Amino acid sequence: MPNRKSRPQKRRRRSIIAFEMIRLDRTATEPLHEQLYRQIRDELKSGRFSDGSSRLPSSRTLATDRGVSRSTVRLALSKLHAEGYLRSQPGSGTFVANLLPETFLTADQPKTDQPVQRLARISDRVRAIPDARVGNQFDLGATGAGPGVSLVASIPAVDEFPIAVWERLRAQVLAKKGVNLLRYSSNRGDVDLRKAIAAYLCDFRAAHCYPDQIIVVAGMQQAMLISAMAVLNPSEVAWIEDPCYQQTRRVLSLAGVKIIPKPIDNQGIVIARSPKEPLPRMIYVTPSHQFPLGVTMTFQRRTALLDFARAHNAFVFEDDYDAEFRFVGPPLPSLQGMDNASRVIYAGTVSKILCPGLRLGYIVAPEQLIDSFVKIRSAMDQHSSPIDQATLARFITEGFFLSHIKRMRKIYAERRDFFIKQFNELLGDRFTLQVPEAGLNIVAWLKREEDFPMIKRITSDIGVRPPALSFFCIQAKLKPAFVFGFAAWTPTQIRESLAKLASALSNRAKDLNHGRQSR
Ligand SMILES: Cc1ncc(COP(=O)(O)O)c(C=O)c1O
């Protein structure tokens, strides 16, 4: 019995207490009825009144309490009625609705009422991916490059991409192929694109392939993932270069593969192994231009690698990510073109040639692997965008691809020469540049190893952030160095950021000297 009495009292008290919090500002531009509506709505949304039995004070009481006219109160309440926050019960008054609209939209409950979040059980697969970043830091993209002139490695000059041409070709293919480009399409890729890629690779990368060997993929990472999943069982061994493109290690970890890092010498990946070392089923290499050291794999090492793969029934994964940008001598033929035993899985990407945002790449599969690769792609994500694929096919067949490469090679050569000259003038006392024959990056070795922590701190403070070479190392213990990118920025931007770095370093040196003298 006492319960029956106390409950309605509690309900009434709740309503009155809440509405006492309402504050109306007569000087504000927002009309009074809107202010009243908004504040009552927010009180109701707080969730404290959602039991369907909370009654509102009468409009007369509300008007008197808040010192406004009854029509102001009526306007506010009728809006709340219309939006489903209130219900009228004839003879009894106005009540909070049983189900507030927010129940269907966003639950706006006070945070303290929410159940404590438990840590999700995460699979070993996720834990195996080497990456310590979490939360907001995690969405920086592979390079971690923020806006501005960061001189981060491996970024192409996307502002030189011919967007107008691309848009025109895109409109043309859409007009011609229409809804056919909106359907699910081939897991191998657009047939015209596969023909165009095969012709390009035979003509310009000295590859030996035909269109049926080409599988269009979503960039190099997907090429690696598909290849690893097709040829390696979990825990089987893949060799990778050390130092290595950081995504390779992450992708192969995702595939559950056991990674053995192999050092790089001045000929490329070192093949020699100790008798106890397990044999690899796949060997990842960047023969045209080793990432990040820039070594071009010699003919002898290429032959030795192919012989090793044939002898041990292994596949070589050739990542040919930026061979188009070679500045000294003629372009080198691909490893795939030298292979006469179907041991090379060749993969290319448009990320450096055109732009990374397209997420398009291609595999040249050894014949015996074609079906397995296609099977995996079909289970993975079916295919890349048919519209982008058809546009790229046109872009290649109409000659824009080659002319873009030619134009970019010239721009990059100029930027590279400019970077080297400026760098040596401004920072030559602290670093020695190791200038590669190809690619969009240059390694700068420290002349005084002890400067490393100071330079690392300063580069991150001033936003000129070439990654440390150690970022790409697994077991390799190399002397301290930074990997500078030069391709994505104009000569003026390059000069400004190198000057900024040089002046920050010399200011720091002066501070240190001053500190020593005053002690
Ligand atoms: C060695 C190497 N391969 C491939 C890529 C590009 O991969 P994706 O096609 O996934 O963008 C990069 C990008 O920096 C790279 O450094």
Estimated structural class: alpha/beta
**Strand-and-helix sequence, N→C?**
HHHHEEHHHEHEHEEEHEEEHHHEEHEH
Q: Helix coverage percent of residues?
A: 40-55%
Uncertain ranges: 1-14, 105-111
**Distance N to C terminus:** 84 Å
Task: Please state the CA-atom Rg, rounded to the nearest Å.
Answer: 32 Å
Proportion of residues in β-strands: 5-15%
Largest sheet: 8 strands, mixed
Average pLDDT taken over every residue: 88
Would you kindly provide a written description of the structure presented here, covering whatever features stand out?
This protein has 519 residues and is of the alpha/beta class. Helices cover 41% and strands 12% of the residues. It has 15 helices and 13 strands. Strand 11 and strand 12 form a beta hairpin. Helix 2 packs across helix 4. It is extended and about 95 Å long. Bound molecules: pyridoxal-5'-phosphate. Pyridoxal-5'-phosphate binds at residues 154, 219-221, 245, 286, 291, 319, 321, 349, 351, 356, 361.
Question: What is the compact description of this entry?
Answer:
The protein has 519 residues and is of the alpha/beta class. The chain contains 15 helices and 13 strands.
